[in-house]
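re: ur question from earlier - yeah i can do the single chain one, its not a big deal. heres the input i used so u can compare w yours
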Amino acid sequence: MDSQQIIVDCLYRVSSKIQVDKDDIPMQRKACHEFIEKQPNWVLGMEHYEKGVSGYKVSSDKRDILQQVRERAEKKKFHVLLVFMFDRLGRREDETPFIVEWFHKKGIQIWSTKEGEQRFDSRVDKLLNYIRYWQSGGESEKTGIRVNEKHTQMVKEGLYRGGVPPYGYRLIKSGVENRKGKELVKLAIDEEESKTVKTIYSLAYEQGYGGYRIAKYLNEHGISPRKGTSWGLAVTNYILRNPIYKGYQTYGKTTCKGDAKGRVKPSEWVISLKPSEELVIIPEHIWEEVQRIRRVRTPKCYREENLDYNNYPMQTKSPLLLVGQVKCGRCRSALTTAYHKNTWENKDGTIKEKSKPVYRCSGRAAGKVDCNGQVTYSKAKIEGIVLDEIYQYLDQLNQVDLSEKIEKKKLNNINEEKREYKIKKKKLDECTTELAALNSEVPKCILGKSEFSRDLLSELIDTKTKEINELEAQIKILDSIMEAKIVEINDMVRLKKKIPVWKVEFEKAELEKKKMMLAQIIDEITVWPDRVDIKVKMYINEFISGIKNKNFMELIYSNGGFIGLETRNKPE
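and the output i got, formated as tokens:
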């Protein structure tokens, strides 16, 4: 380097790629160029662009461009590091002040076009250096709070926040202008992409497909994604859990703490108060059912929440119809899929091999349990027996007037909880009012003007707070119970509509859909060497009182009020 020249490297940074203008950061670059021209012997060296990099959320060791500048400083490639403002170097008070000091120790001068040179001639300079980034960090936090609150309000009102539209939607002009006179855009359903969204939900809802199988199906059927050449698990799962498809805008599905990013529980998402009807691609009840189906495949949720997800099979991949619902009567182990292979030699000497699926007792096959039942059971016999009895059952059930029974169940099923809910809610309101009155006594107590002593007032507040917490927990439980019963009633209503055409629809359906349909009726099938027991859903049991048929009355009641159906055929 010429000893008379002062080589100046410039660092430009913006936090969002939206701020980038045609791959450039023109305002900062122009200001730095003009500043260099005014300084004697200053010569522009290398320009460094950080596009869409947060100086607050992203630590310095994750900022590749900043590391590049540091490497040049180590090699003494320049004398001055120039930025538009010092916060372009970063906004983290726990590291940015020390980065600036590091450059200074390497003999690099740090300059800002607006704030001049950052010096380190005294301890005051070091303190001011720290205070500057402490203030920048605070401003970033305040900005984040303001932005978060704005987005939260927009989502609750059902407004579009901007960004790339979700798959299935496109942007159209809204006819509304912002303060700067620019016309805003809004979401609208994309007719072609929405067809694919409906296919995705249909596969999950009707055939029990998971995200991986859906992606495979779309790729095999030549359905192209918006970006890339093929569908993947992450994209299909994202579509399956996004409430936008039932018309609800959302915000806060992910979180970022420092450099770590993660998902937020759905219960903590910000969601619009009501759906936008013009954005609905999937009916809300189907969207909700898909979520329940998917949760079946999350054993952790099943265990921790103790929820009943047996309306759906755990998987629909097996070529056997009843896998996931059928168990061994001797050891209670699941019957899983196995294959019997038959090998034979043709007249021409060629060897042929054919395999057929059979039901196998997983406990006995693995040798983990003491089971004296059969190892395998014939597919034709087991499925034939079950379907024959189910068809008879539905034929008898079709003779019952379900409308009256459903209405009666609606009244009896929820009224008790509703009454208790109202009592608890009224008591909660009273306690909340009382607690507010007690809290208003605290300032008086401090000033010695209250009729309560400090100890008594503290005890009363603690007791009332505990009572409120208990009431809130009880109300939450009642909410869950009522919601579960509403789901059960909805299942019954759908069953009422399905019964007349169930058999026809079932016989035309693909294997996966047949499994999903059976799971709506059957709770569990137990296979013994000499019989098969079928346990049907509890709410179906409640309708049998109106059926007077000798064949049907031979049903055997087992524990919990379920029905065991004794068959006349002995499975092999």
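The longest helix spans residues 454-508. not sure if urs matches, ping me
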